[in-house]
Specification:
Layout: H1 2-14, H2 39-49, H3 55-68, H4 73-82, H5 87-97, H6 104-107, H7 109-122, H8 124-139, H9 152-167, H10 172-200
Helix pairs in contact: 1-3, 2-3, 2-4, 3-5, 4-5, 5-7, 5-8, 7-8, 9-10
Length: 203
């Protein structure tokens, strides 16, 4: 882990676009780090690295965080920022969560609810930034599916977001987030259908 931290720092210092701090294929068992007694401190160090001014730190250190993150300690370390009531740290936690994986906001709705509510309590800008990073975590990345049909990923988002929109009916800020994901999925499904009909409708 220390090696990759130094590689991230090197990338930020040199601005060398040809240098990738974390290779796409790494023969390292990062899960073993979770068994080390200093594991929480390791996560904190990587988390704190994302707050440094250069964009490279936030981008690559977030990748590193999720390569190492494992178990409940992950939430504890991020909650330290979420519970800080400091705008920069709350947004910073959401920035890290942007790379948590497409299913994170559906698999951890209570955590999502917590960070959205905390952000809204700080100010509207903080809420919008957190909203945006969490939304991106669910919708970014490539999609594939059968020709002429909706993308399975869009269908999955629509179904899960619909359930969570109802679940958080009494929390407007959280409901609005899942409702946005629902509408995004519905728009994507409708767009794909219209594009298919325009292309093959006369065949």
């Amino acid at each position: 882990v220390e090696l990759f931290i130094r590689r991230i720092e090197h990338r930020a210092e040199t601005q060398d676009s040809d240098h990738r701090p974390i290779p796409f294929h790494v023969a390292v068992d990062f899960n073993s780090v979770a068994k080390h007694p200093d594991y929480p401190q390791v996560l904190r160090r990587i988390r704190d690295l994302t707050a440094k001014p250069s964009w490279q730190f936030a981008y690559f250190a977030s990748d590193q965080f999720w390569s190492v993150a494992h178990g409940g300690a992950t939430f504890e370390i991020l909650c330290e920022w979420v519970d800080s009531n400091q705008k920069e740290k709350v947004v910073g936690a959401a920035h890290i969560l942007e790379k948590a994986g497409n299913n994170f906001v559906f698999g951890n709705p209570e955590f999502v609810s917590q960070i959205l509510e905390w952000a809204a309590a700080i100010d509207e800008e903080c809420y919008r930034d957190v909203f945006s990073f969490l939304h991106s975590s669910a919708t970014s990345g490539s999609k594939s599916g059968p020709v002429g049909g909706p993308m399975p990923r869009d269908v999955e988002i629509r179904e899960k977001a619909s359930l969570l929109t109802k679940r958080f009916q009494g929390q407007p800020k959280v409901r609005a987030f899942y409702e946005s994901l629902l509408k995004t999925a519905e728009w994507s499904i409708r767009r794909d259908r219209e594009e298919f009909e325009e292309t093959f409708g006369n065949d």
